[in-house]
Amino acid sequence: MSRRSPVASVPPVAPVVPLRERFRREVASAIAGSAEEVFAEQGLHSAHVGDIARRAGVAVGTLYNYYEDRDALLAALLRERGEELVARFEQAIASAAGKALKKQLGAFVDAYFDFFVAHRPYFKILLEGELTQLQDSYPRSAAIPSHYHQLIFRQLEGLFQRAVEARQLRVAHADLYPWLLLGMMRSLAVCDLRKHKTYEPSSGAQLVNVFLGGAAV
Amino acid sequence: MSRRSPVASVPPVAPVVPLRERFRREVASAIAGSAEEVFAEQGLHSAHVGDIARRAGVAVGTLYNYYEDRDALLAALLRERGEELVARFEQAIASAAGKALKKQLGAFVDAYFDFFVAHRPYFKILLEGELTQLQDSYPRSAAIPSHYHQLIFRQLEGLFQRAVEARQLRVAHADLYPWLLLGMMRSLAVCDLRKHKTYEPSSGAQLVNVFLGGAAV
Amino acid sequence: MSRRSPVASVPPVAPVVPLRERFRREVASAIAGSAEEVFAEQGLHSAHVGDIARRAGVAVGTLYNYYEDRDALLAALLRERGEELVARFEQAIASAAGKALKKQLGAFVDAYFDFFVAHRPYFKILLEGELTQLQDSYPRSAAIPSHYHQLIFRQLEGLFQRAVEARQLRVAHADLYPWLLLGMMRSLAVCDLRKHKTYEPSSGAQLVNVFLGGAAV
Amino acid sequence: MSRRSPVASVPPVAPVVPLRERFRREVASAIAGSAEEVFAEQGLHSAHVGDIARRAGVAVGTLYNYYEDRDALLAALLRERGEELVARFEQAIASAAGKALKKQLGAFVDAYFDFFVAHRPYFKILLEGELTQLQDSYPRSAAIPSHYHQLIFRQLEGLFQRAVEARQLRVAHADLYPWLLLGMMRSLAVCDLRKHKTYEPSSGAQLVNVFLGGAAV
DNA sequence: GATGAATGAGATTTCATTCAT
DNA sequence: AATGAATGAAATCTCATTCAT
């Protein structure tokens, strides 16, 4: 029998988002989307609020009805995608827990590049933000990329530590492993962003192969 | 009698730099030095001409007597150090030519990090410039980092190609090797610049070990 | 049968305000009240339409249904209270007509401060408006404070002129009397508004004493 | 005999202000002057930086080379004139110390109006600043008028207290005396600023007469 | 050749007012 | 009639570059 008894009269209250609110979200999302593109295309420092508004098809004032200022707009963007990315990683690591180390790393790398392929503009912003001095123009956003970088870094550290303890990885200079792996990952992402070579899953697999087994014959 | 004897004897070697000219170079060099520091400390977009001049101990106007504009100043900087860096690489590769692959890579990596340790500010600029959109603020400088990146990349490509042909490296996805190696190198540099861990030569050795032999036991 | 009997009896007095209209006035009045507070608290130039609407519990759009623009809102406010104030003065002067000069002035001063105590926010606005340049932001309101000031001033002038003619006041510089008296009154009001000392009727009496008899022993 | 002995050769070192510096002061002063006028004419809130610069005959950027921001410009103005005004008061009170009360008050009032006549625009600004909410637009300037007001107020309080102790003034409500006197003074100033009647010294004398002896016959 | 004040285009942000729903 | 999101003109401030001294 259906839970919605025909007699019962309280309409299934669920997601009745009021119309106004739906519009609001639509617009906020459109603005965020334009911002993501413009930030990625023009670079964090040449991305002007006017450009973002224009691309979103709204007036500047409208943009400011949704985001307190340019900084807040970037911060919102970085945070939303950052949360998503971290969640993917946690999921990937969890789902591969207990499996062979190669599987675990593979899951990690795949999670990274799946997200990358789906959100290239975000990655461009993120990678730029890693080294650029943002404190001046984006006081609140400045700390966010490194925040998420740390989260991811720690997950990787844990993974490597367990592998070292299980004698699956050599112990010498084990503290470098996260840096080396992430360095290679970043490099493939940059390779793709610079239009040298579109990323393919086999590249990720090869990355893991090299990391674990080396490139030598 | 004129000093310019018609017969002979413009001293062929010593390039007798006139005093005036020596001064010029002194000043130009002081300005470039300050620029390097300021660009590195403040980031490419927050480095103001005024700051650079102040640190060099000259007036802004003076700076403009030596460099056409901010872009030209950065370009000069990037070019000078870039030439130097490429030269080091050529030398390293040449000196290791014919030796074992590990030696060759070691020489390459060492050349990179020796230069890095000697010129951290330059690397900070270079790494920032790799991903930041410079076209707007620095139209002429924008292409320079990637120019030198390419030169280095090609040297590495050649090295790897020869190793592949000599069956020293696995052939599958060999085109990724330069990206992977440079990615790890960059990552260790960033690790140092971010004050996580000062670079030590053993790290470079470990990097080569992992690249060739893998991290797995 | 229709309720509107053809025969008679539209009650001749009570100006039967239709319900709809009564609502309108209610809302208009609520808005004006909020405006009075906000104008007083934030100052004429930092009082934003949005704040006023929010405090009144209506949307900005609603506010604009009742008042043509910000200027009109302020003007309405100034006019309404201004009329009231002038009426009080007329009444005070009329009721004291023929009495001793001291009584007359006492009535005048009391009328002023009674109104002040009942309407501090209005006075804050009024006093601010006396010297601030309003022409730009409030073209229509700008003239209103001085209009009522003039009305009051003239009443006082008349009062003084009669007293001078009756040889109750010294004639020299008699034209200054209204300025001097109003200046002292304003000053006590400001003293209260600035939270130095809450106004008490005895202060008004003392003011009259000083004005008529001087402060000297 | 002249102090500049023809023999002595150290040039009388005094005020050799370098040329550059003299120009700087000239410009700073021109800007401050324009600011004073514009602030007075347009009112504190409609005085735009652009207007000030234009009237001073410089570009906006120039203005910002001399004053950190609009607030700083106003603050400098208020402070400079404020210091001057307070000094005049101190001098006036000191020079009249020990004389009859009427002389003392006369000196005080004269000092006020002498300064007023010489600096009407400043007074307009000052009087406007007394009641306008400046905190938002001029965070640093906001406190300055009341600061100087306090200084002057205290001088007057002291003067009155001594007079009360010497039984020269009635003791009842003596705390109101500064408010009443300053209120009348302000009122005459406003009367002049509003173009009703240009201030004349006899008005000040009359003010003191009324304050001490009352207006009544 | 050195100096540093002047310049002004250009970027961000605010907020009174409008108007479709 | 009420709503509140959209609008965009206008204001402040920055800073690379110029140029008279």
Sequence-ordered SSE layout with sheet pairings:
Four copies of one chain form a homotetramer.
Chain A: H1 19-42, H2 49-56, H3 60-66, H4 70-96, H5 101-118, H6 120-131, H7 143-165, H8 177-193, H9 201-213
The structure holds a DNA duplex (21 and 21 nucleotides).
Task: Pick out its properties.
homotetramer; 217 residues; Tetracycline Repressor, domain 2; 2 domains; 9 helices; disordered N terminus; DNA-binding
Report on the structure:
Four copies of one chain form a homotetramer. Chain A is mostly helical and 217 residues long. Chain A has two domains: 17-67, Orthogonal Bundle (Arc Repressor Mutant, subunit A), CATH 1.10.10.60; 76-215, Tetracycline Repressor, domain 2, CATH 1.10.357. Chain A has helices at residues 19-42, 49-56, 60-66, 70-96, 101-118, 120-131, 143-165, 177-193, 201-213. In chain A, helix 1 packs across helix 6, helix 5 packs antiparallel against helix 9 and helix 6 crosses helix 8. At the A-B interface, helix 6, helix 8 and helix 9 of A face helix 6, helix 8 and helix 9 of B. Chain A binds a DNA duplex (21 and 21 nucleotides) through residues 19-20, 23-24, 27, 48-50, 58-62, 64-66, 69-70.
